[in-house]
Amino acid sequence: xxxxxxxxxxxxxxxxxxxxxxxxxxxxxxxxxxxxxxxxxxxxxxxxxxxxxxxxxxxxxxxxxxxxxxxxxxxxxxxxxxxxxxxxxxxxxxxxxxxxxxxxxxxxxxxxxxxxxxxxxxxxxxxxxxxxxxxxxxxxxxxxxxxxxxxxxxxxxxxxxxxxxxxxxxxxxxxxxxxxxxxxxxxxxxxxxxxxxxxxxxxxxxxxxxxxxxxxxxxxxxxxxxxxxxxxxxxxxxxxxxxxxxxxxxxxxxxxxxxxxxxxxxxxxxxxxxxxxxxxxxxxxxxxxxxxxxxxxxxxxxxxxxxxxxxxxxxxxxxxxxxxxxxxxxxxxxxxxxxxxxxxxxxxxxxxxxxxxxxxxxxxxxxxxxxxxxxxxxxxxxxxxxxxxxxxxxxxxxxxxxxxxxxxxxxxxxxxxxxxxxxxxxxxxxxxxxxxxxxxxxxxxxxx
Length: 448
Description:
Elements: H1 2-22, E1 25-31, E2 34-41, H2 44-55, E3 61-68, E4 75-83, E5 90-94, E6 97-100, H3 106-120, E7 136-140, E8 150-157, E9 163-170, E10 176-183, E11 186-191, H4 192-197, H5 199-202, H6 217-223, H7 233-247, E12 258-261, E13 270-275, E14 280-287, E15 307-315, E16 321-327, H8 334-342, E17 359-363, E18 371-377, E19 382-387, H9 396-405, H10 416-426
Parallel strand pairs: 14-15
Antiparallel strand pairs: 1-2, 1-3, 3-4, 4-5, 5-6, 7-8, 8-9, 9-10, 10-11, 12-13, 13-14, 15-16, 16-17, 17-18, 18-19
Helix pairs in contact: 6-7, 9-10
């Protein structure tokens, strides 16, 4: 009898364990095209959090996929993850869905917009005699996930009724946002750095100011560095960096100041390098279509006329990657370019209504020691490809593209072969002192 009872107990235990295990699924974590361990959980979301917590070091970012161990063996992802260096909190993002802290959730966004709306529509903005609104107004965010962090409203505007157009705040993991009040049903929330450095948002500013108080980046940024206005050291430091890039001159004319940041916290794999003239380049860790063809140059479109370059990845069968660099030439008419830089709507009257990439440089899939370049003319729709080497030195537009190549910061890739060829195409004598880890002055003037 005792033996029978023992057998029944073991059988019951196995059934319970089987049912518990059945509720969990197993996945392989795939990082840089290699399996990096097996993880189990109730579903991909829970497993993605486990992978990020286990594999990610403080202050680092990574992208990974999840492959089902059994069943249909589906692949889930990509997931982007990062871990804050100070707090150790992990943020995991798939598409625009946030799985764990560190990035504004949709409910956070809606609550923040409602707070801004209530602030502007509670009656205090009605102008009366002798009343002079403060340029900056500080309050505490009644949003639990922000831990009662301060929010600062600024730029009051209006004749009969004052409306504050902007607000700045920092969430717990350190991301800094600007809220833009357009109307009570139209409020944007964007990265603070992108707000000041993106030409689209910079259209809110001009050199002389506008409205009742005037809005001028050169005036606003110093205010955002004052502790009596901004309590957060993180915001003050970021404002100082932005001001430094835009307004503090450098003595070495061969170098160009630039700032690298993540323009959208939902997509940490995308980084942006913005120069002081507001032209910019983008590094996107996404892999291009594995089928290399001339038409690939038409598959990418610049964000605007200000985008100099886009870098993606070209994957080979053994997990080896090479950069793919798209380049957009600036308008060769210097005065015309400056006009468009000051007025983003001027592009509607420009010859090139839609921005496009003129060149694409990549590694020949049949010979990894050989670089290829695709040329595209949007007006004639003509596409051609040829070797990228020093023999192209007589082509003026190729030289202009090479100047852009030499402005790409090392953090976007060493690009040794590309830089060497670009250096030799332009003029070796002029670039004897060219060193890595520097940003050479990009030419806005056409070459002569």
